[in-house]
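Hey, I was hoping to borrow your eyes for a little while. There's a protein on my desk that I can't quite get my head around. The fold is given in discrete form, as structure tokens running alongside the sequence. I'd be grateful if you could look everything over and explain what you see. Here's the protein in full, and shout if anything looks odd to you:
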Amino acid sequence: MSFLWDSSEELSVPVDTLTGMARLGSVPEWVGPPLRAVADIELFLLRVFERTRAPQALGSWVSLSWLGAEDGERTPGPLGEGLPTETAAWAAMLTADAIAAGDPYPASSWWAARGMAPGDRITPQPGFRS
């Protein structure tokens, strides 16, 4: 078994474990970067998750895996099971962008349209801005 080693840390990650999880063999034609670039990002995200257990890295990896449609119609994606579509990919990226920027999600207008008062909404954890 080979290991990736970062001399700045004491942690080593078995490459065989990560490689087994990386699944991208193809991406839809509407994906701009070439397969090799997307697959490299997929492997990078797995390494980040292995080292940090950050849910953001895992969620990003799941989204990239969805592009490969390994399980066909049953492939888990950001909107449930199904084949990847450009519209769903953009919707997921725009949502993630808003959340990363600290914007409330869903937006206040979404809650108001459903008659939910601000006090009834899920509030952010201390230290997170809303």
Residues 74 and 80 are 9 Å apart (CA to CA). Confidence is low (pLDDT under 50) at residues 1-16. The longest strand covers residues 3-5. The two ends are 45 Å apart (CA to CA).
